Amino acid sequence: MESLRKDLSPIRMRNYGRILQDVVAYASTMEDEAQRKAMIVYLAQCMRQKNLVWNKDQESGFNRVKADIEKLSDGALSCDFPEFDQIMQQMAMQRRKKK
Asked: Taking 80 as the threshold, does the pLDDT of residue 58 lie above it?
């Protein structure tokens, strides 16, 4: 992770911050598919929470998070696997129950 920190390029999406940008860069270098998928799910959860803080007026959908993950990773990460959709649907149902 330290080697990624030397790159002080501008923050691409301010609503997520540099840390998530660095984690996306790290996840895109992971070789183990199971760990990569787990990291993508974790990133999506964090990004959704950040979106809810920044965009209080509008619901932050998972389609936006999917697109942002792909954009931040320059296409290296993809959310197109069945477990991702299942976990995101469960999170959405939990959020609705809390309201």
From this structure: no
CA–CA distance, 30 with 51 (Å, rounded to integer): 25
Do the beta carbons of residue 11 and residue 17 sit within 8 Å?
Answer: yes
In whole angstroms, give the CA distance from residue 96 to residue 48.
Answer: 14
Instruction: Encode pLDDT of 5-21 as tens digits.
Output: 556 778 888 888 888 99
Per DSSP, the residues of 63-97 read HHHHHHHHHHTTTS----SHHHHHHHHHHHHHHHH
Q: What is the pTM of this model?
A: 0.77
Cβ atoms of 50 and 17 within 8 Å: the answer is yes
Pair 48, 81: CB distance under 8 Å: no
Contact 52, 92 (CB under 8 A): no
